[in-house]
Amino acid sequence: MQDIVQTIQSLGFSQYEAKAYLSLVRQGTASAYQVSKESGIPRARIYEILKGLEEKGIVMKEERNEAIHYSSLPVDVFLESLQTRWNHTYQSLSHTLKYLEKTEPVEDNRVMTLKGESHILAFCRTLLKKAEKRVVISLWDKMYENLEQELKDTECDLKGIVFQKENPLSGLDTHRKTKYVENVGENKWFILSIDAREMIYGPALEERETAFYTDDPVHIYLLENYIWHDVLVNRLVKKEKDDIENWISNERDIFFQDK
Predict the structure, then answer these.
(1) Which of 7, 37, 103, 202 ranks highest by number of CB atoms within 10 Å?
(2) pLDDT tens column, 188-245
(3) What beta strand segments (E) does the chain contain?
(4) Is the confidence at residue 252, as pLDDT, over 90?
(5) pTM, full prediction
(6) Phi, psi angle pair for 194, to nearest 5°
(7) DSSP letter for each residue of 1-19
(8) For the structural domain made of 111-255, what CATH number should be given?
(9) CATH fold group of domain 2-89
């Protein structure tokens, strides 16, 4: 008998619900007291259990001679209702699972750490070969020299800025000579972005052989705009008076100064 109880439970019923239904199947029609006694369900719970089964349409309640009696839904009807419900669930689940199976999973955008100079340079060269439309860079002299041949070979639109390097490739600006650039020391960096979909950035490799790869659109948007800001300021300063350079240098010192 325990096996049939467990089987009914597997269909979504509680243990007490399964026992109450089986008790009524055996007895035909019975009072709550009789169901409680025959099934072993505590009397304190029997009315709650029978009411729940009634609401599910599994148990029917009727009044006889001013007494309440319960009877089970006929077994054939019960089984038919289960089959109908199962078929509906099966069809719905089958459709959903098959749709998901055909749909390629959407990967989360990544930010990955790259280690080792040769590995990082190889990754940069691979990205440059993959580029289809646009390459955006911000490179200091040594990193530019490492990637110069691949930059020459690309047929994409080349944009960005290069530090401490005269006469870079067409499309690239040379950053003006400033006190900040001359004294930046170890705080150099590089940014390489292709087609606004993949990017590698990090500190100068001669200082720290670590970089970061990302295909996250927010990272790419922010860093490409950072490069554009650098290019824009560089072009504007060239058009203005000489003393603006001192003003920019002073304003930068104030901005990054701790109070």
Answers:
(1) 202
(2) 899 999 999 999 999 998 888 899 999 999 999 999 999 999 988 888 887 666 677 7
(3) 29-30, 59-64, 67-72, 111-115, 134-140, 157-163, 172-174, 189-194, 198-203, 210-214
(4) no
(5) 0.56
(6) -120, 130
(7) -HHHHHHHHTTT--HHHHH
(8) 3.30.870.10
(9) Arc Repressor Mutant, subunit A (1.10.10)
